[in-house]
Amino acid sequence: MLKILTIFGTRPEAIKMAPLIKELQNHPGCFDCRVAVTAQHRQMLDQVLDLFGIVPRHDLNIMQPGQSLFDITRRALAGLEQVLSAEQPDLVLVHGDTTTTFTGALAAFYRRIPVGHVEAGLRTGNKFSPFPEEINRHLTGVLADIHFAPTAAARANLLREGVAEKDIFVTGNTVIDALLATVRREFAFTDPVLSNIDYARQRVLLVTTHRRENLGEPMREIYLALRQVVQDYPDVTVIFPVHKNPAVRQVVREVLGEAPRVHLIEPLDYQPFVNLMQRSYLVLTDSGGLQEEAPALGKPVLVLRDTTERPEAVEAGTVRLVGTVREAVLTETRRLLDDPVHYRRMAEAVNPYGDGQACRRIAAAIAWHFDLAEAPPDEFSPR
């Protein structure tokens, strides 16, 4: 039996790794799957673990107030040294682009343990955008032995960097697996703000911002554009789960605190969040994961960044890069509110990121790599 240790530390990683853990656990004669969390994020991580019923064997609980990237890296690496020494797994699985991802891969490398990188091969080409995620992905890619690329474009990035084709599997993104298992048409919100909105009459703009490179004036520009939108469109309501970073909260309150029909709420758990996204008209975000999730629900996305490591959605037409300049954000939002043909074109574009079978493909790829299966998995291709 193959002992697999999955390592993650943030809410986005947990969301995308949860269905994979469940898939691996469905093959008890083949895989012994164990979970270690750094808790780089604490509360936001715990609610995802509770939702999917995942109990970590190891919890480093490294999060501290005001932690820096130096703090996270140092504490995660030291803690993972002990975990790997105790577990001695046959394979370590990490996900995406967080500091936990990089330190997990580095710790496994130091122990000469093979690394599987889920969501491998995403690139912007700018090492400071997103920061530090772009470099975390690069470094993890150098350390990884098996690369689970969500798309053909991600595979092409890895091939250009010298990764052997036999070590890359195009699987689709596991976030679509998680999303399809969580969205419910009959879902009832417990938050009174969300439960009292008339989604049939109000067009809801779902907004999230948190990127380090957008802190300060870029975020202020975004929020000023949003304030203008609600002034101009009486049928528009903004729902804004505000990131806990004090630097984000200060600017949000200054610009949008008194704006009509703008609801500044606490960050939502994953289940109500994706069900809110399902009922929204449009998503404005600087998040990476929402660029994959929203198109799966038929929701256009305006990306509040100048670069994206997910160009497939831009090419497919489900996502549009608008940056952070007030007039650009305002212009693109108005276009989607005023032009039903343009809106429909974005909403109905094919989602390039997955079909809900990524976890099955990854499990099959692991079995194939370790000579536990007679054939490799089928390759994901958007239909």
UniProtKB/TrEMBL annotation:
EC number: 5.1.3.14
Pfam families: Epimerase_2
Lineage top rank: taxon: Bacteria
A GO term for molecular function: UDP-N-acetylglucosamine 2-epimerase activity
Name of the molecule in the record: UDP-N-acetylglucosamine 2-epimerase (non-hydrolyzing)
InterPro entries: UDP_GlcNAc_Epimerase_2_dom, WecB-like
All residue ranges annotated as the UDP-N-acetylglucosamine 2-epimerase domain in the record: 23-366
NCBIfam families named in the record: wecB
CDD domains, per database record: GTB_UDP-GlcNAc_2-Epimerase
Membrane spanning stretches: none
Family: Belongs to the UDP-N-acetylglucosamine 2-epimerase family.
Keyword terms, alphabetized: Isomerase
